[in-house]
Amino acid sequence: MKPYVKRHKNDSVDAEAICEAVQRPNMRFVGIKSVAQQEILSLHRIRSLAVKNRTALVNQIRGLLAEYGIVFPKSIKQARRAIVLILSDESSEMSANFRVILEDERDELAHLDERIGKYEREIEALAKAEPQCRLLMTIPGVGPITATALLASVGDVRAFKNGRELSAWIGLVPNQHSTGGKAWLTGISKRGNGYLRTLLIHGARAALRVCENKLDRRSQWAVSVSERRGANRAVVALANRMARSAWAMLVKQEAYGASAAV
Question: Is the pTM of the predicted complex or chain greater than 0.85?
Answer without folding.
Answer: no
